[in-house]
Write a structure and sequence with these properties.
- The chain is α+β, with helices and mostly antiparallel strands and about 220 residues long.
- Helix content is about 35%, strand content about 20%.
- Helix 1 packs parallel to helix 7.
- The longest helix has about 40 residues.
- The radius of gyration is 18 Å and the shape is globular.
Length: about 220
């Protein structure tokens, strides 16, 4: 009887560990698929911002209850001709978005092209509109929605085939060391990951995500 109970207890523990490990891979995989769709469908202004971005954050659409609302990943590079960093875990709170509802209906993207984007987005908590200027991402280049001249963080959402601008001003991008631990095996701070100051073994899921980001120097030059 005791032997049977021990087997049952072990069986109950294993799925929890498996889900914990699989959850991070699934989160990165969902971000990869969302990014792939966005790159394929991005209108002209969004594509131009993608190519000039120094940091890209993705909050992927999830099944209800799968992940924390507003949870995703961010990757940065010091210049448009430089390679992308491994992704770091984030969660976005506030910004006028009801994340527990929105994250089950759409994926959200934040494209940051400030000159010191890596430094700014590496903080433990970054307030959009205060620490980094925040704008809804433009969709057209006409007089009503001209391409923005000022650098900052530009928000977009995608649901199905629809890409829309998202106003995230007032929201806070928080580092998620818990997700970093799931991805890398230790509670790394985002600054360590985004600046490449710590060596990490990267998984296939991480490599796949980096591969879908805009290629280094694609069609743009350093400012």
């Amino acid at each position: 009887m005791l032997k049977k109970l021990s087997i049952v207890a072990a069986a109950m523990m294993l799925p929890a560990f498996a889900c914990h490990a699989a959850g991070s891979a699934d989160q990165v995989a969902r971000s990869t698929e969302a990014m792939r769709t966005f790159v394929a469908k991005a209108p002209g202004p969004a594509r131009a911002l993608l190519e000039k971005s120094l940091c890209i954050a993705v909050i992927p659409q999830t099944a209800s209850g799968s992940f924390e609302p507003g949870q995703g990943i961010i990757s940065c590079r010091p210049g448009v001709s430089a390679p992308w960093s491994a992704p770091a875990g984030i969660d976005i709170s506030g910004g006028g978005v009801i994340w527990d509802l929105a994250s089950t209906q759409m994926s959200v993207f934040l494209l940051v092209n400030t000159p010191d984007a890596v430094k700014r987005m590496s903080g433990a908590a970054v307030i959009l509109g205060v620490d980094v200027s925040a704008y809804p991402g433009p969709l057209r280049t006409d007089s009503n929605e001209g391409f923005p001249r000022q650098p900052g963080a530009f928000g977009y959402s995608i649901s199905g085939d629809d890409i829309e601008p998202v106003a995230l001003g007032g929201g806070t991008v928080n580092e998620d060391t818990g997700l970093n631990q799931q991805i890398y095996g230790s509670k790394l701070h985002n600054a360590e990951i985004l600046t490449g100051s710590r060596q990490r073994a990267t998984s296939a899921a991480v490599r796949d995500f980096i591969a879908v980001l805009p290629k280094a120097g694609a069609g743009v030059t350093e400012q």
